[in-house]
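Recap slide: Vomeronasal type-1 receptor, sequence and predicted structure.
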Amino acid sequence: MAAGDLAIRMVFLSQTLFGVLGNDSLLYHYLFLYCTGCRLRTIDLIVKNLTVANILVLFSNGYHNTMTNYGWHHMDSDFTCRFFPYVRGVSRGVSIGTTVLLSVFQAITICPQTSRWAELKVKALQLVFPSIILCWIVNMLVNVVYPMYMTGNLSNKNFTNRKRFGHCSSVRHDQIRDSLYAALISFSDVLCFVVTILASGSTGFILYRHKQRVKNFHRIKVSSISSPESRATKTVLLVVSTFVCFNILSSICYIVLSVLKDPDLFIMNISAIITACFPTISPFLLMSRDSRISRLCFAGKRNTNSSSLMRKI
C-alpha cells in the first residue's frame, strides 16, 4: 500500500511538473513569435486558449492532489475543496470546448476554395473569439455546483448525509438526482466528442482526396492545400485523436464518481491522473510538429555557430 501511495504521488508530481513546463514553453513560443513581429494565425489564438485551460487543469488537479497526498492537511479547508474542484471543472470544460472549436475551425479552413466555403471561412474567423468567451462563461456557470456543495472534511464531523471524496466531501443527493447529473455530464461530453470526431473525419477525408489528386496530377506544382497548412492539419488530427482517447476515459470516471455513493480513493486517483494526461501531452505534440519552432531552433543554432566562428577569427 505504501508503494502504491508513493507511485500515485510521483505520477501526480510528474504530470504537474512536465505538463506545466510544456504548456509554459508553448506560451513562451507564441510570446516570442509576437515579440519578433511574426504574424500569428487565428488557429494560434485557439491553441493559446487551450494551453491556458490545460495549465489550469494541471494546477488545480495536480497541485491539490499532490499536496494532499503528501500530507498537507491544511488543504482540507472549505476554500480549497471548493476552489480547486471548481477551477478543474471549468478548465476541463474549456479544454474540451476549445478542442472541439479547434477541430471544427481546421475542418472549415482546409475546405475547397469555393464562394460558399469562402463566406463560411470569413464567418468562422469572426466567431472564434466570441466562441472562446462563450465557452468560458458557460463552463463557469455549469460548474458552480462545486463551490455550492463541496466542503472540507475538517469542518464536518457528521458524514451521514455527505459523500466523501478523499479529503473533501459533498452533499449526498438521492440516486435520481445523481443519475440526472451523470446524464448531463455524459450528454455534453458525448456531444462534444461526436462533433470533434465528425470534424476530424471530414478533415481526414479532405486530406485523403487532396493526396489522391496530387498522385493523379503529380506534374502540376500548384496545390490547393499548402505544405504548412497540411502539416498543421495533421497536427490538429493528432491532438484531437489524443484528446478523444483520454477524455472518453475521463468522462467515464466522472460518471462513475457521480453515481457511486462512496467513491473509492483508487478510482478518484485514477480519474485525476487520466484527466491530467491530455493537458500534459498536448503541448509537446503541438511543439514537435510546429515548423516555426524548428526554424527558430535552427536559426538560434546558426547564430551560435556564427558567433563562435567570429570569436575564433
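Residues 298 and 304 are 10 Å apart (CA to CA).
Confidence is low (pLDDT under 50) at residues 219-225, 297-313.
(End of recap.)
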